[in-house]
Amino acid sequence: MENVFPKFAKSVFKEIRAILDDEIDGVSLELNEQDLTDLKASIIGPRDTPFENGLFIIRLILPTNYPTEPPKGFFLTKIFHPNVNPRTGEICIDTLKKEWNPVLGLRHILLSIRCLLIVPNPESALNEEAGRLLLEDYDEYTRQARIFTSVHALGPAATPKIPTSYPQDSTILRDSNGHPEKSTSLNKKKTLSVTKKTMKRL
């Protein structure tokens, strides 16, 4: 935390707290008070898509002049998707590039990435094969995407500490042993308590 400007840290904490207070359906943001420039979140694959019920871990790297400059987004979970680089996991989405606006924030970014799983954009493909199949052979595209989901985002390949599905009214919090806890009001208070204590140190 010493290398992060207090103004930046307080701004990011405020956004994280807002997300914890008003959860995003199918999305869970992890709080890493040790490094606010490196955030992780989990996304449950939306229904009626080739990614359904898969657990996808993403990484957001925030520049220290955020929100003036947008974060960089990466899928840590392997995924067959036109807008995800198959080698690096980099996410190509207009929200993080030409359409970025400092007022958008983390909530909008997470929602946009989840929406990308529902509506891919073959015109800005980082995975050329996935982009081509999406346009020319949708059945084969969905088949390959489901295979990737099954192998990398379901079962043992997925992060075992986070369940592959959870109710709409829950989010991923960790207990002292690193196991997931259901998001109760008590757990929220514990998380926000950590947030407040960290902010006092800034």
UniProtKB/TrEMBL annotation:
UniProt GO MF annotations: ATP binding; ubiquitin conjugating enzyme activity
This protein's record includes keyword Cell wall biogenesis/degradation: no
Sections of the chain in a coiled coil: none
Pfam families from the UniProt entry: UQ_con (PF00179)
Chain positions covered by the region annotation Disordered: 159-202
Keywords: ATP-binding, Nucleotide-binding, Transferase, Ubl conjugation pathway
EC number(s) on file: 2.3.2.23
Positions of the UBC core domain: 7-154
EC class (word): transferase
Active-site residues from the entry: C92 (glycyl thioester intermediate)
Ranges of biased composition (kind: Basic residues): 187-202
Bias (Polar residues) ranges: 165-174
UniProt-recorded name of the protein: E2 ubiquitin-conjugating enzyme
Species for this entry: Schistocephalus solidus
Gene name for this UniProt entry: UBE2S
